[in-house]
Each structure stands twice: as C-alpha cells, then as structure tokens.
Amino acid sequence: MNLLKNYRIEKRDHVSPLVLALSALVSLVAALMVTALLVTISGGDWKEAFSSLFGGAFGDKDAILETLVKSTPLILTGLAAAIAFRGKIWNIGAEGQLFAGAIGSYWAFVTFESLPTVPLLIIVFIAGCAAGGALGLLAGILKAYFHVDEIITTVMTNYIVAYMLALILSGPWKEAGSVYRHTPALPDFVKLPIIVPGTRLNLGFILALLAAGLFYYLLKKTPLGYEIRALGSNP
Questions:
Q1: What one-character-per-residue DSSP string does 113-180 give?
Q2: What DSSP element (H or E) covers 46?
Q3: How many CA atoms lie within 13 A of 184 on its CB side?
Q4: At what angle do helices 61-86 and 223-233 cross, to 10 degrees?
Q5: Dist. CA 161–CA 172, nearest whole Å
Q6: pTM here?
Q7: Are the C-beta atoms of residues 128 and 104 closer than 8 Å to each other?
Q8: Cα–Cα distance between 111 and 191 in angstroms, integer?
Q9: How many CB atoms lie within 10 A of CB 68?
Q10: Which residue in 105, 77, 84, 79 sits closest to 165, CA to CA?
Q11: pLDDT tens-digit map of 65-105
C-alpha cells in the first residue's frame, strides 16, 4: 500500500494516434463481448446474431451503400454533439435538434415550393440549420442567464420536439388517406443528387464527410476552435 502512494493517475498531455486507435479497438471488442454475453443470457445464439448484424450492414454492395445512407444523419448529428462536448457543454439534445431541423426544412419546402430548385435547396438547408440551432440556443440562454443545467434542458427538449413532430404528422402535415404518420413524398427536384445510380446514396454523404473535415479544421486551426478547446480544458 505504501508503494501505491507514490503513484497517481494523470491524463496524458499527448496521446499518439496508435494509442487512440488501440483504445477504439479495445472499446469495440469490449462492447461486442458484453453484447454476446447479453444475447447468450437471453437464450439467443450470439454467433447468429453477429452474423445477421454484420451481414445486414456489410454483407454485399447494396448493404454497404445503405449503411452509408443511414450513417449520413448520424455523422452530422455526432459532429453537432462533439463540438459542444469539446467545450464541456453537455448537449444531450442532438436528437431533438435533428428533429427540429427536419421540421424547419420541411416548413421551408412547403412555404417556398414555387422557387427554382437551387434557391429552394439553399433556403431548406438554412431553415434546417436555423431550427436545430435555435433549439440549442434556447438551452444556451437558459444556462448563461438562468444557470439551468444544459443536460436537463436538452433532454427535455428531445421529448418536446418529438411529441410536437408526432402531433403535426398526425394533423396538418399528414399525407391524405395514409394510415401512417408521415408527410407526402417530396418531389425529385428537391432531393439531393444520387451519387451511386440505383441506390439511395446521395450527395448528403459527401457533405457529411466535408462537414467532418470542416469540424477538424475549426477545432484545430482557428481561434474559435482554440477557445472551445480551452473552455473544455479549464477545470
């Protein structure tokens, strides 16, 4: 015990890319082991479960491309959460902000549908960013001026926006005659271009990758990024 008193755990000042890669690999293996254990305890076959999981995601070309389609909103939403986390602002409301962005984008479409395609797409993008950002801004104002913890407000707004979306999809925006809660299908002219013919993979995936590069540049190469990292490093 006296020997242990001479040691203490400290965070590294610099972590090499190899250590980061190994940490991610160990985390992935640990998650798979825990999942296999839970599947086995529940009476299932973990080998069959993993085979179905990986086959559905990476089993063939179509599965891989569909996985990329599904990953696009996850990449963008993850970046939105990560930039707040780097400043130790615990935004747990990314899901609600995503829904708010979708609501704002669709509202912009039905409001300005008569515009030509290019300005319409620009307005739709701006409206989506503004609606999602406004929800995050609300939590920021409550924290800055009223000292309300952002974890509480962002978690609560997730539910508020989700129920509001369900309400409007059950009423004014619901497709006429449909038993499901969804809007009418959007026309092709307002959809992003498909980058792999015959699939659903569109330009949004490329934009998500560009956003990830922009996120890195913002945090590592700009004064604002330095301020965000400094805020997160400040005890």
A1: TTS-HHHHHHHHHHHHHHHHHHHHHHHHHHHHHH---HHHHHHHHHHHHHHHHHHHHHTTTSPTT-SS
A2: helix 46-58
A3: 11
A4: 70
A5: 16
A6: 0.83
A7: yes
A8: 16
A9: 19
A10: 105
A11: 999 999 999 999 999 999 999 999 999 999 999 999 999 99
97-141 confidence digits (pLDDT tens):
999 999 999 999 999 999 999 999 999 999 999 999 999 999 999
Alpha-carbon distance 84 to 232, whole Å? 9
How buried is residue 112: exposed, middle or buried, by Cβ count under 10 Å (0-12/13-18/19+)?
middle
Q: Is the sign of the CA dihedral 11, 15, 20, 23 positive or negative?
A: negative
The C-alpha atoms of residue 149 and residue 153 are separated, in whole angstroms, by: 7
| CA 164 remoteness from chain centre | 20
Q: What is the 8-class DSSP label of residue 202?
A: B
CA-atom Rg of the chain in angstroms: 22
CA 107 to chain centre: 21
Distance CA 1, CA 7 (A): 11
Q: Which residue has the tokens 């299908």?
A: 185
Cα gap 229→86, rounded to integer Å: 6
The answer to whether 218 touches 211, Cβ cutoff 8 Å, is no
